[in-house]
Write a structure and sequence with these properties.
The complex is a heterodimer of chains A (302) and B (364).
Chain A: H1 31-62, H2 68-75, H3 77-110, H4 114-130, H5 132-143, H6 148-155, H7 167-190, H8 196-203, H9 208-236, H10 240-246, H11 253-262, H12 267-292, H13 294-301
Chain B: H1 3-26, E1 37-42, H2 45-61, E2 68-73, H3 78-88, E3 95-100, H4 101-109, H5 118-128, E4 133-134, E5 137-150, H6 161-164, E6 174-177, H7 181-192, H8 206-216, E7 220-224, H9 227-236, E8 241-245, H10 246-255, E9 259-275, H11 282-293, H12 296-306, H13 321-324, H14 331-335, H15 342-346, H16 348-363
Parallel strand pairs in B: 1-2, 1-3, 6-7, 6-8
Antiparallel strand pairs in B: 3-9, 4-5, 5-8, 5-9
Classes of the chains: A mainly alpha (302), B alpha/beta (364).
Chain lengths: 302, 364
C-alpha cells in the first residue's frame, strides 16, 4: 500500500550534513585530510618564517655580548631614535592609510554609477600592480629638486619644496603603497553592510554625521582595527621606500639593520635591533587588542 | 577501501606532488664540472659588461684554461656575501672583480682570501710593480674620490678639502658617501689639517673627524649609496657639489654636465682582483689573474670605457692623453691624492667605533 510522506524527524538535533549513506560524497573535508593538505604550507611556514625568527632571537642572545646586547642597544641613542621614529612613522602611515582607505571603501560600497565604480577600483588596484620599486622611483622623479612638483610650485612663486630625502617623502610613499591594502580589507567589511540600516536611521531623523557615528562606525570598528593592525605590521618593516625616498640617512630600522649587516658587519647589533622592533610591534598590537577586545577582533577575521 | 581513507590518501598524494614540484623547481641543475668554469663576484651593470668584453672574451680567445664564466652581482656587498658563504660552509665564488680596498683588506684579515702562490706573486710584481701587488691580489679599478662641483650652480669650486668642509664659504648643498665611513674620515682629517703625506700612517682622531663632519651636516642633502645614485643626485640637482667616484664624475662630464672635477686632496681608493679562499676553481682563478696582469692593451680598453685606473704601467701607452689624465694612477693626479689608513681601519675596535659613530652622524 502506498504510504504517506516519510516521517519528518522530530528529534531536536537538526544535523546539516548529508544523510549517512555509505560511500556518498561529502564536501566536508575531515580534519586529517585537511591537515595533510595544509602540510606543505605548514612546513614552509615553519621553515621559512618560524625557524629564521627563532634563529634571529637566538643569534641576538648568543653572539656579541649575549643578553648584554640588549642593554647596549637600548643604551645606544641611535637605536632608540631609529626605533621611535620607525614606530611613529608607521603609526602616521597607519592612521592616514586606514582613514583614506576606509573612506574609499565606503564610497565603493555606496556608489551607484558603474563607470565611477570601475574607475575607482582601477585607481585603487593599479598601484598594487605597478610594483613597489617602480612606484617609488615615480615618487623620486615627482619630488626631484627640479621635477614636476617643484616646477608646479614655481609657477606660483612658492619656494622649492625639499621633500625628497626626508621622512615626509617616506611617509607619503608608504601611505600610497598601503592604501590599496586598507581599501581591500575595509571593503570586505563593508561589502556585507546592510544599507537599509542607514535609511532606517535617516528616516528616524538622524543627521548624516550622526548616522556615520552611531550606525556605520560601530559596525566597522573591528574591521578598522584589523586593517590598522595589518597596515601597521607591514609599515614597520618597510625597506624599499625608506631607502629610495629617504636616502641613507633616513631614520628607519630596516636601513639601520642593513647598514649593520653590510657595512659594519655587526651582526649582533643587527639581530638585536631587529628583535627589539619585533617586540615593540607585538607590544603595540597587544595593547590595541586589549583595548578592542579579542572577541570583536575575531569577528573581523571570521 | 572506504571513502574516508580514499580521501586521506588522495590528500597525501596532492601534498606530496606539491612538495615535489617545489623541490624540483628550486634545484639548480648545474652540470658543468668545477674545472672549466669560474664564478666572479662582480659589480653588475656597465662594469660587468666591460670585464666581459675586454677581459673574459679575450682570455677565451687566447686559449685560456677556463671557458665558462658567470657573474654574481653584489655591488658594495662583496664582503658580506663572501662571509655568508664562508659561514654556510659553501664557497661559490672564485674571483672578486675589483673588491673595494677597505673590504679587501678586511676580508684578508679575516682569512677569507686565498694567498697568492709565491711564484705567481713574483710574476705579478715583475709585471706590475711592487706597490700594485699585495698578498691577496693586485690593484685594479682604482678610484679617486674627487671633489665635484656643478658650475651651473656656483661660481667657484673648493680647491681642497679644507674649503669643501667650510659651510660659510661654500653654503651649497652637498652629497657624500653614506656607506664609506673611512673615506669621509680621511677627507675630514685633511680638512682638520693633517698633512696629505701622513694620512696613510696617522691613526684617525675620531673627535677631530666628527667635528669637521658636523660642520657640513646641514648642507649634506643626500648620502649616496651607489654609483648610479651619485650620478642621479648630481644630474637632478639634489646636490650642487660632492665627493664622488672619479669614474662616475667623468661619465657625468661626458653626458654634458658643466662640472669641475678637482683632484687636489682627492682620496685614493684602490680595488683589488682577488681569489676567494677555498674557491671551487682556485687553479683556474690564478691562471686568469696571471693572464690578466700581462694585458696592458686590454686593461687600457677597460680603463677607457669606465674611467677607472688599471695597474699595468704600460697601459698608459695605449690611452689617449685625455683618458690618461682621468686615471687615479696618472702621476699628476696620484701626487696630490691622500691615502687612507687601511691598517688602522682593519682593526676591529677602530672599525666598529668609526662605523657606529658614523651611524649616529647619519641618523642624527
Amino acid at each position: 500500500m502506498e504510504t504517506h510522506a516519510a516521517q519528518v524527524p522530530t528529534s531536536g538535533a537538526a544535523t546539516p550534513s548529508a544523510p549517512e549513506v555509505k560511500g556518498a560524497w561529502s564536501p566536508i573535508v575531515g580534519p586529517w585530510s585537511g591537515l595533510v593538505l595544509m602540510a606543505p604550507l605548514l612546513v614552509l611556514l615553519v621553515a621559512m618564517v618560524g625557524y629564521p625568527l627563532v634563529k634571529l632571537a637566538v643569534d641576538s642572545l648568543t653572539t656579541g655580548d649575549g643578553i648584554g646586547n640588549y642593554a647596549d642597544a637600548i643604551a645606544d641613542a641611535t637605536v632608540r631614535k631609529v626605533l621611535v621614529s620607525t614606530v611613529l612613522a608607521s603609526v602616521v602611515v597607519t592612521v592616514l592609510a586606514v582613514a583614506m582607505g576606509g573612506l574609499l571603501a565606503w564610497y565603493l560600497r555606496t556608489v551607484e554609477n558603474p563607470l565611477l565604480k570601475a574607475v575607482l577600483w582601477l585607481s585603487v588596484l593599479l598601484p598594487v600592480l605597478m610594483g613597489t620599486v617602480v612606484k617609488n622611483y615615480a615618487f623620486v622623479i615627482l619630488f626631484a629638486a627640479e621635477g614636476p612638483l617643484n616646477s608646479f610650485l614655481d609657477l606660483f612663486g612658492l619656494g622649492p619644496a625639499e621633500i625628497l630625502y626626508t621622512s615626509t617623502a617616506v611617509i607619503i610613499g608608504m601611505t600610497y603603497t598601503m592604501i590599496p591594502y586598507a581599501v581591500l580589507a575595509m571593503y570586505s567589511v563593508f561589502a556585507n553592510f546592510d544599507l537599509t540600516l542607514v535609511t532606517a536611521a535617516r528616516s528616524m531623523g538622524a543627521s548624516r554625521p550622526r548616522v556615520m557615528r552611531t550606525v556605520v562606525l560601530p559596525i566597522a570598528t573591528p574591521g578598522l582595527i584589523a586593517t590598522a593592525a595589518i597596515v601597521f605590521a607591514i609599515s614597520l618593516g618597510f625597506y624599499v621606500t625608506p631607502v629610495l625616498l629617504g636616502g641613507a640617512q633616513a631614520p628607519f630600522m630596516a636601513l639601520f639593520v642593513q647598514d649593520n649587516i653590510l657595512q659594519s658587519f655587526d651582526y649582533a647589533l643587527a639581530s638585536t635591533s631587529a628583535v627589539l622592533l619585533l617586540l615593540v610591534a607585538i607590544v603595540v598590537m597587544g595593547a590595541v587588542l586589549a583595548m578592542v577586545g579579542g572577541k570583536r577582533l575575531m569577528q573581523a577575521f571570521a | 577501501m572506504s571513502r574516508k581513507w580514499k580521501k586521506t590518501v588522495t590528500a597525501l598524494m596532492v601534498a606530496a606532488a606539491t612538495a615535489l614540484l617545489v623541490a624540483c623547481g628550486g634545484s639548480d641543475g648545474d652540470s658543468s664540472s668545477a674545472g672549466d668554469s669560474l664564478v666572479i663576484g662582480g659589480w653588475g651593470g656597465t662594469i660587468d659588461k666591460a670585464t666581459q668584453k675586454h677581459y673574459i672574451d679575450k682570455y677565451i680567445a687566447d686559449g685560456g684554461d677556463v671557458t665558462k664564466f658567470s657573474f654574481v652581482d653584489a655591488p658594495s656587498a662583496q664582503l658580506a656575501r663572501v662571509e655568508a658563504q664562508a659561514k654556510a660552509g659553501k664557497i661559490e665564488w672564485d674571483l672578486i672583480d675589483s673588491a673595494p680596498g677597505p673590504e679587501a683588506y678586511l676580508l684578508n684579515a679575516k682569512g677569507l682570501l686565498a694567498k697568492l702562490p709565491s711564484d705567481l706573486k713574483q710574476e705579478l710584481v715583475d709585471e706590475l710593480g711592487e706597490q700594485r701587488v699585495t698578498d691577496f691580489g693586485f690593484s685594479h679599478a682604482n678610484v679617486g674620490n674627487v671633489i665635484v662641483c656643478n658650475m651651473d650652480k656656483m661660481d667657484s669650486c673648493p680647491r681642497n678639502m679644507k674649503e669643501f668642509f667650510d659651510p660659510k664659504k661654500f653654503p651649497q648643498t652637498r652629497t657624500i658617501a653614506g656607506n664609506n665611513p673611512l673615506i669621509n674620515a680621511t677627507a675630514a682629517e685633511l680638512a682638520a689639517g693633517v698633512p696629505r703625506e701622513d694620512t696613510a700612517t696617522t691613526p684617525v682622531n675620531l673627535d677631530q673627524v666628527f667635528d669637521q663632519l658636523d660642520r657640513i651636516r646641514d648642507t649634506v642633502r643626500v648620502f649616496h649609496q651607489s654609483g648610479d645614485q651619485q650620478m642621479q643626485v648630481m644630474r637632478n640637482g639634489e646636490a650642487d657639489m660632492g665627493i664622488l667616484w672619479s669614474g662616475r664624475a667623468y661619465s657625468l662630464l661626458d653626458e654634458g654636465m658643466n662640472l669641475e672635477i678637482v683632484w687636489n686632496d682627492a682620496i685614493y681608493e684602490p680595488s683589488f682582483w682577488t681569489v676567494v679562499k677555498d674557491a671551487p676553481n682556485e687553479e683556474g682563478a690564478f691562471d686568469f689573474l696571471r693572464w690578466l696582469a700581462k694585458q696592458p692593451e686590454a686593461q687600457a680598453g677597460w680603463a677607457e670605457e669606465l674611467n677607472y685606473s688599471v695597474p699595468h704601467p704600460k697601459a698608459f701607452d695605449f690611452l689617449s692623453e685625455k683618458d690618461a689624465k682621468r686615471q687615479a694612477d696618472y702621476p699628476a693626479n696620484f701626487e696630490v691624492m691622500a691615502i687612507p689608513n687601511w691598517d688602522w681601519y682593519a682593526q676591529p675596535e677602530n672599525k666598529s667605533e668609526l662605523d657606529s659613530r658614523f651611524q649616529s652622524y647619519l641618523r642624527g
